[in-house]
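Hi there,

I know you've been waiting on this one. I reran it after we fixed the sequence typo, so this is the corrected version. Both the input and the resulting structure follow.
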Amino acid sequence: MISGILQFEFLQNAFLTGIIIGAIAPLVGVFVVVRRMSMISDALSHVALAGIAFSLLLQKSFLSLAGLNPLYIGMAFSVGGSLFIEKLRGVYKHYQELAIPIIMSGGMGLSVIFISIADGFNTDLYGYLFGSVSAVSRADLYVILAVGIVVALMLTLLYKELFLLSFDEEHAKASGIPYKAIHFIFIVMVALVIAASMKIIGILLVSSLMTLPVAASLRFAKGFKQMIGYSVLFGEVSVIGGLFLSYNLDLAPGGTIVIIAVLILILSILFDKWKNR
Protein backbone atom coordinates (compact mmCIF):
# COMPACT_ATOMS: atom_id res chain seq x y z
CA MET A 1 0.00 0.00 0.00
CA ILE A 2 2.92 2.36 0.69
CA SER A 3 4.02 2.26 -2.95
CA GLY A 4 0.39 2.74 -3.97
CA ILE A 5 0.08 5.83 -1.78
CA LEU A 6 3.06 7.36 -3.54
CA GLN A 7 1.65 6.45 -6.93
CA PHE A 8 -2.14 6.90 -6.80
CA GLU A 9 -3.94 10.08 -5.80
CA PHE A 10 -7.05 8.28 -4.54
CA LEU A 11 -4.93 6.35 -2.02
CA GLN A 12 -3.26 9.56 -0.91
CA ASN A 13 -6.69 11.09 -0.37
CA ALA A 14 -7.94 8.06 1.56
CA PHE A 15 -4.82 7.79 3.71
CA LEU A 16 -4.66 11.49 4.61
CA THR A 17 -8.40 11.59 5.27
CA GLY A 18 -8.04 8.51 7.47
CA ILE A 19 -5.34 10.19 9.54
CA ILE A 20 -7.57 13.21 10.10
CA ILE A 21 -10.65 11.15 10.95
CA GLY A 22 -8.63 8.79 13.14
CA ALA A 23 -7.75 11.78 15.31
CA ILE A 24 -10.88 13.93 15.44
CA ALA A 25 -13.47 11.14 15.79
CA PRO A 26 -12.01 9.71 19.05
CA LEU A 27 -11.13 13.24 20.19
CA VAL A 28 -14.77 14.27 20.06
CA GLY A 29 -15.79 10.78 21.14
CA VAL A 30 -14.05 11.20 24.51
CA PHE A 31 -16.44 13.99 25.45
CA VAL A 32 -19.39 12.10 23.93
CA VAL A 33 -18.67 9.03 26.06
CA VAL A 34 -17.90 10.94 29.26
CA ARG A 35 -21.12 12.93 28.87
CA ARG A 36 -23.01 9.66 28.27
CA MET A 37 -24.22 10.76 24.85
CA SER A 38 -22.93 7.80 22.84
CA MET A 39 -26.23 7.25 21.06
CA ILE A 40 -26.19 10.72 19.54
CA SER A 41 -23.59 9.63 17.00
CA ASP A 42 -25.92 6.87 15.80
CA ALA A 43 -28.82 9.31 15.54
CA LEU A 44 -26.87 11.87 13.54
CA SER A 45 -25.36 9.22 11.28
CA HIS A 46 -28.88 8.13 10.33
CA VAL A 47 -29.76 11.75 9.58
CA ALA A 48 -26.60 12.08 7.48
CA LEU A 49 -27.70 8.96 5.58
CA ALA A 50 -30.95 10.74 4.76
CA GLY A 51 -28.93 13.65 3.41
CA ILE A 52 -26.80 11.38 1.25
CA ALA A 53 -29.85 9.55 -0.09
CA PHE A 54 -31.55 12.88 -0.81
CA SER A 55 -28.47 14.15 -2.63
CA LEU A 56 -28.25 11.03 -4.79
CA LEU A 57 -31.97 11.34 -5.53
CA LEU A 58 -31.47 14.94 -6.67
CA GLN A 59 -28.59 13.87 -8.89
CA LYS A 60 -30.74 11.20 -10.46
CA SER A 61 -33.77 13.46 -10.92
CA PHE A 62 -32.05 16.61 -12.18
CA LEU A 63 -29.16 16.42 -14.62
CA SER A 64 -28.11 19.95 -13.68
CA LEU A 65 -27.32 18.67 -10.17
CA ALA A 66 -25.21 15.73 -11.36
CA GLY A 67 -22.07 17.36 -9.97
CA LEU A 68 -23.55 17.94 -6.51
CA ASN A 69 -21.28 16.57 -3.79
CA PRO A 70 -23.33 14.39 -1.40
CA LEU A 71 -20.85 15.17 1.38
CA TYR A 72 -22.16 18.73 1.63
CA ILE A 73 -25.80 17.64 1.82
CA GLY A 74 -24.92 14.97 4.36
CA MET A 75 -23.19 17.58 6.51
CA ALA A 76 -26.16 19.94 6.22
CA PHE A 77 -28.60 17.21 7.26
CA SER A 78 -26.35 16.11 10.12
CA VAL A 79 -25.99 19.65 11.47
CA GLY A 80 -29.73 20.16 11.02
CA GLY A 81 -30.35 16.96 12.96
CA SER A 82 -28.18 18.24 15.80
CA LEU A 83 -30.24 21.43 15.94
CA PHE A 84 -33.47 19.43 16.08
CA ILE A 85 -32.07 17.31 18.90
CA GLU A 86 -31.38 20.45 20.92
CA LYS A 87 -34.86 21.76 20.15
CA LEU A 88 -36.47 18.51 21.29
CA ARG A 89 -34.35 18.47 24.45
CA GLY A 90 -35.98 21.79 25.27
CA VAL A 91 -39.46 20.45 24.52
CA TYR A 92 -38.97 17.31 26.64
CA LYS A 93 -37.11 18.91 29.53
CA HIS A 94 -37.72 16.00 31.90
CA TYR A 95 -37.18 13.32 29.25
CA GLN A 96 -34.36 14.81 27.20
CA GLU A 97 -33.03 11.41 26.16
CA LEU A 98 -36.13 11.01 23.97
CA ALA A 99 -34.70 13.52 21.50
CA ILE A 100 -32.09 11.07 20.22
CA PRO A 101 -34.37 8.12 19.27
CA ILE A 102 -36.88 10.56 17.77
CA ILE A 103 -34.28 12.06 15.45
CA MET A 104 -32.78 8.64 14.72
CA SER A 105 -36.19 7.31 13.70
CA GLY A 106 -36.91 10.35 11.57
CA GLY A 107 -33.54 10.12 9.84
CA MET A 108 -33.98 6.44 9.09
CA GLY A 109 -37.51 6.99 7.83
CA LEU A 110 -36.40 9.73 5.45
CA SER A 111 -33.52 7.56 4.25
CA VAL A 112 -35.87 4.70 3.36
CA ILE A 113 -38.23 7.08 1.54
CA PHE A 114 -35.48 8.73 -0.50
CA ILE A 115 -33.88 5.38 -1.35
CA SER A 116 -37.26 3.97 -2.39
CA ILE A 117 -38.00 6.95 -4.64
CA ALA A 118 -34.56 6.56 -6.21
CA ASP A 119 -35.35 2.89 -6.97
CA GLY A 120 -32.99 1.35 -4.46
CA PHE A 121 -29.27 1.25 -3.77
CA ASN A 122 -26.44 2.13 -6.10
CA THR A 123 -22.69 1.87 -5.78
CA ASP A 124 -22.35 5.45 -4.52
CA LEU A 125 -24.76 4.88 -1.65
CA TYR A 126 -23.08 1.58 -0.80
CA GLY A 127 -19.78 3.41 -0.47
CA TYR A 128 -21.31 5.93 1.91
CA LEU A 129 -22.88 3.17 3.99
CA PHE A 130 -19.73 1.10 4.50
CA GLY A 131 -16.89 3.35 3.39
CA SER A 132 -14.73 3.25 0.28
CA VAL A 133 -11.01 3.73 -0.28
CA SER A 134 -11.60 5.13 -3.76
CA ALA A 135 -14.52 7.43 -2.91
CA VAL A 136 -12.53 10.28 -1.35
CA SER A 137 -11.70 13.02 -3.84
CA ARG A 138 -9.14 15.77 -3.34
CA ALA A 139 -12.02 18.23 -2.80
CA ASP A 140 -13.42 15.94 -0.09
CA LEU A 141 -10.00 15.84 1.54
CA TYR A 142 -9.87 19.63 1.73
CA VAL A 143 -13.37 19.79 3.25
CA ILE A 144 -12.52 17.11 5.82
CA LEU A 145 -9.24 18.87 6.61
CA ALA A 146 -11.16 22.10 7.22
CA VAL A 147 -13.57 20.25 9.52
CA GLY A 148 -10.63 18.71 11.37
CA ILE A 149 -8.97 22.09 11.90
CA VAL A 150 -12.20 23.70 13.10
CA VAL A 151 -12.97 20.84 15.49
CA ALA A 152 -9.44 20.74 16.91
CA LEU A 153 -9.44 24.52 17.35
CA MET A 154 -12.83 24.60 19.07
CA LEU A 155 -11.94 21.74 21.40
CA THR A 156 -8.72 23.54 22.33
CA LEU A 157 -10.49 26.83 23.00
CA LEU A 158 -13.39 25.24 24.90
CA TYR A 159 -11.46 22.46 26.63
CA LYS A 160 -11.91 23.75 30.19
CA GLU A 161 -15.60 24.46 29.71
CA LEU A 162 -16.28 21.09 28.08
CA PHE A 163 -14.29 19.32 30.78
CA LEU A 164 -16.33 21.00 33.51
CA LEU A 165 -19.62 20.31 31.73
CA SER A 166 -18.64 16.68 31.28
CA PHE A 167 -17.86 15.96 34.92
CA ASP A 168 -19.88 18.51 36.91
CA GLU A 169 -22.65 20.08 34.86
CA GLU A 170 -24.39 21.64 37.85
CA HIS A 171 -21.23 23.39 38.98
CA ALA A 172 -20.59 24.54 35.41
CA LYS A 173 -24.04 26.10 35.25
CA ALA A 174 -23.62 27.75 38.66
CA SER A 175 -20.21 29.17 37.73
CA GLY A 176 -21.69 31.22 34.91
CA ILE A 177 -20.40 29.20 31.97
CA PRO A 178 -22.65 29.71 28.91
CA TYR A 179 -23.40 26.00 28.93
CA LYS A 180 -26.22 26.14 26.39
CA ALA A 181 -24.02 27.81 23.79
CA ILE A 182 -21.11 25.47 24.50
CA HIS A 183 -23.35 22.41 24.33
CA PHE A 184 -24.78 23.67 21.05
CA ILE A 185 -21.28 24.15 19.59
CA PHE A 186 -20.30 20.69 20.78
CA ILE A 187 -23.33 19.03 19.17
CA VAL A 188 -22.59 20.77 15.88
CA MET A 189 -18.98 19.54 16.08
CA VAL A 190 -20.21 15.99 16.58
CA ALA A 191 -22.45 16.36 13.53
CA LEU A 192 -19.58 17.65 11.39
CA VAL A 193 -17.24 14.85 12.46
CA ILE A 194 -19.87 12.22 11.68
CA ALA A 195 -20.50 13.66 8.23
CA ALA A 196 -16.77 14.02 7.54
CA SER A 197 -16.09 10.41 8.55
CA MET A 198 -18.69 8.69 6.41
CA LYS A 199 -16.67 8.37 3.19
CA ILE A 200 -13.92 6.41 4.91
CA ILE A 201 -15.66 4.41 7.61
CA GLY A 202 -19.26 4.52 6.39
CA ILE A 203 -22.39 6.05 7.87
CA LEU A 204 -23.53 2.87 9.60
CA LEU A 205 -20.20 2.36 11.37
CA VAL A 206 -19.00 5.89 12.10
CA SER A 207 -20.23 5.85 15.70
CA SER A 208 -17.89 2.92 16.36
CA LEU A 209 -14.82 5.07 15.74
CA MET A 210 -16.12 7.62 18.22
CA THR A 211 -16.68 5.10 21.01
CA LEU A 212 -14.52 1.97 20.65
CA PRO A 213 -11.11 3.70 20.95
CA VAL A 214 -12.44 5.61 23.96
CA ALA A 215 -13.71 2.40 25.55
CA ALA A 216 -10.27 0.83 25.09
CA SER A 217 -8.53 3.89 26.51
CA LEU A 218 -10.56 3.63 29.72
CA ARG A 219 -8.66 0.43 30.53
CA PHE A 220 -5.30 2.23 30.45
CA ALA A 221 -5.77 5.92 31.18
CA LYS A 222 -5.08 7.30 34.64
CA GLY A 223 -6.46 10.72 33.84
CA PHE A 224 -8.60 12.58 31.34
CA LYS A 225 -5.72 13.82 29.19
CA GLN A 226 -4.28 10.31 29.06
CA MET A 227 -7.68 9.06 27.96
CA ILE A 228 -7.64 11.56 25.10
CA GLY A 229 -4.13 10.50 24.10
CA TYR A 230 -4.87 6.78 24.15
CA SER A 231 -8.17 7.30 22.30
CA VAL A 232 -6.48 9.16 19.46
CA LEU A 233 -3.69 6.57 19.34
CA PHE A 234 -6.13 3.66 19.14
CA GLY A 235 -8.22 5.55 16.59
CA GLU A 236 -5.22 6.10 14.33
CA VAL A 237 -4.10 2.48 14.61
CA SER A 238 -7.62 1.33 13.76
CA VAL A 239 -7.97 3.59 10.73
CA ILE A 240 -4.49 3.10 9.27
CA GLY A 241 -4.57 -0.65 9.87
CA GLY A 242 -8.12 -0.87 8.53
CA LEU A 243 -7.24 1.01 5.35
CA PHE A 244 -4.22 -1.22 4.82
CA LEU A 245 -6.32 -4.38 5.15
CA SER A 246 -9.11 -2.92 3.05
CA TYR A 247 -6.78 -2.11 0.17
CA ASN A 248 -4.91 -5.41 0.22
CA LEU A 249 -7.93 -7.67 0.78
CA ASP A 250 -10.39 -5.65 -1.34
CA LEU A 251 -12.80 -5.14 1.56
CA ALA A 252 -14.96 -2.20 2.64
CA PRO A 253 -12.74 -0.04 4.89
CA GLY A 254 -15.51 0.59 7.41
CA GLY A 255 -15.62 -3.07 8.39
CA THR A 256 -11.86 -3.53 8.66
CA ILE A 257 -11.45 -0.33 10.68
CA VAL A 258 -14.16 -1.32 13.15
CA ILE A 259 -12.87 -4.89 13.52
CA ILE A 260 -9.39 -3.61 14.38
CA ALA A 261 -10.95 -1.21 16.89
CA VAL A 262 -12.89 -4.11 18.43
CA LEU A 263 -9.72 -6.22 18.64
CA ILE A 264 -7.91 -3.36 20.37
CA LEU A 265 -10.77 -3.12 22.85
CA ILE A 266 -10.71 -6.87 23.54
CA LEU A 267 -6.93 -6.83 24.01
CA SER A 268 -7.19 -3.85 26.35
CA ILE A 269 -9.76 -5.68 28.49
CA LEU A 270 -7.65 -8.85 28.59
CA PHE A 271 -4.53 -6.85 29.44
CA ASP A 272 -6.34 -5.03 32.22
CA LYS A 273 -7.56 -8.32 33.70
CA TRP A 274 -4.08 -9.84 33.46
CA LYS A 275 -2.53 -6.80 35.12
CA ASN A 276 -5.00 -6.84 38.01
CA ARG A 277 -5.14 -10.57 38.65
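Quick highlight: The radius of gyration is 19 Å.

Best,
R. S.
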